[in-house]
Amino acid sequence: MFAIPTNRLVSPAARSILREMHLMQEAGVDPEELVILDNSTGEIVRHNARDLALLRQETRIPIRHVTAGEQLQLIDALARVTGQERGVLRDLLYPEPNTGDYGKVFNLLYLLAAAHGRRVIHRRDSDCSTEGLEPALYPVHGELRFLGKTLAQAQAGTDTVERLPAAAMGKEIQIAGSDYIGHWNLDLMDLEAQSPQAMPALLKLLSVPPQQIPVYLHAKYRGRNEDYRPRPLLITCETGAETPEITPYYPECGNLAMKDVFRRIPNFIGARCIGFDYHTYILGTMLGVPAVYHRNKIVHAHDAVRRRQRDLKAYWTGIIKLADYNHFITAVGQSEAFARLAAMNAPDGAAIANVLSACQAERSGAERLSLIDRMAEEVLRASGVPAYEETARWLKSRGESLVEELDQDYRRSIALQREWPAYIRGADALARAEVLLRMPREPHAQRMAGAAP
Could you tell me which Pfam families the record lists for this protein (predicted)? Predict the structure, then answer.
């Protein structure tokens, strides 16, 4: 299944992803269908419905436009088959429009995949495109090359910085992805232009190993990862959760394919939480799920609207939450409880949730508040730019409320991890009963958007 989550006009991204899907067909592999998970509202969702209706006339690949109404229908169907309270499921699963809950968005794609009977998701984002790329460089080639292959099959075509035990060579690669190219991070580009030391200071506070900060800058923000990593990188964490050399080489969510791992580990959830939608990848690899960082990047470019709509307070709230999460997941990987968990063969949702909960309970509130203060002082105020200084003061004034908000995000995320196997089983049951195939589509989507059917 190919998927694009969106809250904006999606036609250019849909045309781009269809080019990749047609290439997959030419390679003799069924791309299955394209799912557009649409969290836009009003005229945008109606515009997307019209554009996708036109696209369906140009391709035989099925295109499903999943608007807010169908998302809620899926959740309500899950409530029926799992016996869970509908209100609880909506709280944990439904991505309310305009909340920036990226983890929920990706989790809903996981459930849609399971409810369609799919084991693989190829994700692209609505601000990503293959425009200007040679077809031989499309990301789908990297995904087809590695996803589902064993370590033994992939080893010859990759590099690794880890020791691969012979017993691990039969493991299957469940994650394959790469990076963005283009001017994709407007907020950090602007800050760096004003204060060259801001990025190294930020990455240090984001828990990036100091020796990897120069490499990280080149890989993520300069588009020069090939200077350090000319071949695909095989990632296994077979010798432990912490391998500094792999830190700069994680796939971005808009250039990623997953197989099966999303059935075990949902993303963390929470409004304005940058990076929470990487949790499946991060925790999965920490638990020894093999991944490949390939070289086929995708173009990421912001439109004129995004360039005008710059909300520093919202963005840096997200960065604060990312920093807190990074320190949390680092502490998880260093814990004795996690070492025992990683030694288990496919630990279940409850076992994973118990370790996450125990690690969260041990965190120091004073250290977390200090992290917020340091982010404000060492990154934002140090820039000397009035707008960033104002944002720094605002963040410091909200320190305690941000920590409380994060604690609530973690509690709900851990509760979701505990129940996730039941939700996946419920989605599997929907697939067997072909429930999604019988759900109303375009007319229902139009009614939910406020248009006449």
Answer: DUF6271
